[in-house]
């Protein structure tokens, strides 16, 4: 890609959050610090620009990309975890869709037996939106993924099923600067609240699935994961497909993650509540004596991996 000025250091990977909220946008005075836009994250590595999810944060990213690259050719890869609204709703407002010089590949898995292509076009049909996607065909390619391992340029991408209603995956990107895993919607299979001393096949299954995810994530530098509920809220939402903070911290510790970002913030959680959840997560890590760093994802926050000289090979501008 296309513009080396965007990635001056070959071994450096940059991550930026454009939308961190779950379920529905939550603008307002109570959410100005962490932000109200839904799931969208940008990763730049090895000359590639990879966008993870197309929630409403995608609109802001689109404006920035056009300002940065002006009329230069540009290639973008958009990886979708699934097609729930909070993960695709920014797509119709993504201005690069209207610029033929921008080549856009949209990759994801089929979610409802109609095909990814049909699903994404449907939300832009005339009852819902004035500009149809068919008008954009020449520079937008929608590809349904079959394999769980593929390359985006030099980035090795692997996918794993998430525990979430319908078809939903998480992605792990192995880049020269470090590895990043993105699981915006996921309920850890093992939970203190969900499996109280129980036995039986369901628990066996949960343990097996948990182990698979621990292996998939093992040693990842940065994990961005659904922590929608605190423990008390989770009691009312078991089986909904979203994470309990305590379980996600335990999972990250077991998988030897270096840095965990709390993500998919509940639309009813204001900034102070997210601060509280972050403090609770840090307390859990301290109690376990872990070296895991925990942060709450915030709209506009950036992270650099693989800078070499910086502490821990990463720098947070969050
Ligand atoms: Zn979601
Ligand atoms: Zn979802």
Describe it for me?
- By secondary structure, the chain is α/β, with parallel strands linked by helices.
- The chain has one domain: Metallo-beta-lactamase, Chain A (4-Layer Sandwich).
- It is 24% helix and 25% strand.
- Strands 6-5-4-3-2-1-14-15 form an eight-stranded mixed beta sheet. It has a seven-stranded mixed beta sheet with strand order 7-8-9-10-11-12-13.
- Strand 8 and strand 9 form a beta hairpin.
- The radius of gyration is 19 Å and the shape is globular.
- The chain binds zinc ion (2 copies).
- The site of one zinc ion (ZN) has 9 residues, from helix 2.
> Element order, helices and strands?
EEEHEHEHEEEEEHEHHEHEEE
What's the CATH architecture? 4-Layer Sandwich
CATH-defined topology: Metallo-beta-lactamase, Chain A
Count of separate structural domains: 1
Please state how the strands of the largest beta sheet are arranged side by side. Answer: 6-5-4-3-2-1-14-15
The global form is globular
Distinct ligands, ions and cofactors found in the model: zinc ion
Largest sheet report: 8 strands, mixed
* Cα gyration radius (Å): 19 Å
Main CATH class: Alpha Beta
- Give the CA-CA distance, first to last residue: 26 Å
Instruction: Count the E strands.
Output: 15
Helicity, as a percent range: 10-25%
The computed structural class is alpha/beta
Counting DSSP H or I runs of 4 or more residues, the number of helices is: 7
CATH superfamily: Ribonuclease Z/Hydroxyacylglutathione hydrolase-like
Q: Which parts are unreliable, with pLDDT below 50 for 5 consecutive residues or more?
A: 1-7, 309-318
Query: Could you report the average pLDDT, rounded to the nearest whole number?
Result: 90
Strand content: 25-35%
């Amino acid at each position: 890609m296309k513009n080396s000025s965007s990635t001056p250091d070959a071994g450096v990977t940059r991550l930026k959050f454009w939308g961190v909220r779950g379920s529905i946008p939550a603008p307002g005075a109570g959410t100005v610090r962490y932000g109200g836009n839904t799931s969208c994250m940008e990763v730049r590595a090895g000359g590639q620009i990879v966008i993870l999810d197309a929630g409403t944060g995608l609109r802001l990213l689109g404006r920035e990309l056009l300002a940065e690259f002006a009329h230069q050719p540009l290639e973008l890869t958009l990886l979708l975890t699934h097609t729930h609204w909070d993960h695709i709703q920014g797509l119709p407002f993504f201005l690069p869709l209207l610029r033929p010089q921008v080549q856009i590949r949209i990759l994801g898995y089929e979610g409802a037996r109609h095909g990814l292509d049909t699903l994404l076009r449907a939300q832009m049909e005339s009852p819902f939106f004035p500009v149809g996607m068919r008008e954009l065909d020449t520079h937008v390619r929608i590809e349904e993924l079959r394999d769980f391992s593929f390359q985006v340029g030099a980035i090795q991408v692997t996918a794993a099923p998430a525990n979430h209603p319908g078809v939903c995956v998480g992605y792990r990107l192995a880049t020269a600067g470090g590895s990043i895993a993105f699981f915006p919607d996921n309920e850890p299979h093992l939970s203190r609240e969900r499996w109280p001393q129980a036995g039986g096949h369901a628990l066996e299954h949960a343990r097996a699935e948990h182990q698979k995810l621990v292996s998939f994530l093992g040693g990842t530098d940065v994990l961005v994961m659904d922590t929608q509920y605190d423990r008390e809220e989770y009691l009312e939402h078991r089986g909904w497909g979203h994470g309990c903070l305590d379980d996600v911290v335990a999972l990250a510790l077991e998988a030897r993650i270096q840095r965990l970002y709390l993500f998919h913030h509940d639309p009813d959680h204001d900034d102070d509540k997210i601060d509280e959840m972050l403090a609770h997560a840090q307390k859990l890590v301290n109690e376990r004596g872990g070296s895991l760093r925990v942060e709450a994802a915030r709209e506009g926050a950036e992270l650099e991996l693989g800078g070499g000289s910086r502490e821990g090979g990463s720098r947070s501008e969050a």
